[in-house]
Amino acid sequence: MDKATFGLTMMVVGIGGTFLTLAILIWSIQLLKKIFPLSAEDGSKANRG
Amino acid sequence: MIEGIFTGLLGLTDGVQALVTLAGLKQIVMLAIGGTLIFLGVKKDVEPLLLVPIGFGCLLVNIPGSELMHQGIDIGAKQVLEAMGPAAPEALKAMAKDDTGFIRSIYNMGIANELFPLLIFIGIGAMTDFGPLLENPKILLFGAAGQCGIFLTLLLALALGFPHLEAVSIAVIGACDGPTAIYVASQYAPQLLGPISVAAYSYMALVPIIQPPIMKALTTEKERTTTMPVVKRSVSANTKLLFPIVVTVVTGLIAPKGLPLMASIMLGNFMRECGAVTRLTKASENEIANIATLFLGIAIGATMAAEDFLKPTTLAIFALGFVAICLDTVVGVGFGKLWYVLSGGRMNPLIGAAGISAFPMAARVVQAQGQRYNKKNFLLMHAMGANCGGQIGSVAAAAVMLSVLKGLGLI
């Protein structure tokens, strides 16, 4: 594979892949926050801490 | 007898004699570089935990006659040669007399097999609170934007003539993440490990100097003075506990080649959040990380032998590393400006500069710059979120890169 093709492939797939991975993580975090909302117990622990 | 004493005394001058040759002059330059690194670490507080051992390793390996990085043969092969006795070829017998140098042993123990960067990552995970990121997960996108410098620098490195894998290793300096740069370089460009590591750690320390002019140049007065709302606490303990496991599984499935990196940082974070293994958490963030840092620093410094370091490629690596970090900031702030427009002026674009892995320096720079232009502006928690995103983003970008390389059949 020549350098120009390699560089452009890495840039497109690399940037796209990084954004995609982090977008999936954002979605996963939001899902976790919905499944495990902040409870009163969490709040009191934070206040004690 | 007098002749013997004279000959013996001459033996003591071997090192000095070696310094007055052409090769010796190069070693004098490297001794000066090693001394400079130690000076920067001790007197200027520039990443002292890394630069002091790196500088010392550099001094040790450039003292003439030093055999600290000498690669001997393994014990098994040595035993075979001894068993062969006089029948063994002379050349092999000569090799068998050479022992592996003490720093080479450290290098083989933890750099050649990527162990030390991963141990440091466990410590980093144990020290990091991802809370600010979890409060506002969308800010993780800054962690992706902040890695674009890696891929743009890769194009530049290829254009300068570096082979594919060397270009990738150099570009990863743009992750602003020392252990990641070392992890990738030790696998795919071990001959460039010294300059890449020193460049990565030097530029990380220079973030407070490199970023502010770029941030100012790319933003308007109105954008810089944009205030951000106070971050409200909205994350449960269970979310914080499960976050490292989810990140490990998701990134492992997408980019398995980078799993050791992500898994290490998330293992440390899981131990921190679960609270059940306090001793392991404390050991990871203190003793283990400190020992790994010391050994890693000495071994990296010892890769800076004059004949390997004093080359035009070293200057090119430093220049490309600088460009990478500048481009990270440019794209990060540019992404912040886009967010500013899309959010109707509610996102301060300076936050974009924190989407790199230099933690918590980049977040502090954003906070300082925000306050410089608007005393009522408190961007720290938002910037910390973006900075946490940068830590995850840098590892994700490296992992994606390695997996793409594997997909292309290059590794």
Automatic annotation (TrEMBL), chain A:
Cellular compartment(s): Cell membrane
A Pfam entry, by short name: OAD_gamma
Sorted UniProt keywords: Cell membrane, Membrane, Transmembrane, Transmembrane helix
Ranges that cross the membrane: 6-29
The name this protein goes by in its record: OadG family protein
UniProtKB/TrEMBL annotation, chain B:
Subcellular location: Cell membrane
Pfam family, one: OAD_beta
Top-level taxon of the source organism: Bacteria
UniProt cross-references to NCBIfam families, sorted A to Z: Na_pump_decarbB
Identification of the protein by name: oxaloacetate decarboxylase (Na(+) extruding)
Keywords assigned by UniProt, alphabetized: Cell membrane, Ion transport, Membrane, Sodium, Sodium transport, Translocase, Transmembrane, Transmembrane helix, Transport
Membrane topology of the entry: Multi-pass membrane protein
Organism expressing this protein natively: Rhodoplanes tepidamans
Catalytic activity: oxaloacetate + 2 Na(+)(in) + H(+) = pyruvate + 2 Na(+)(out) + CO2
Role played: Catalyzes the decarboxylation of oxaloacetate coupled to Na(+) translocation.
Cofactor (UniProt): Na(+)
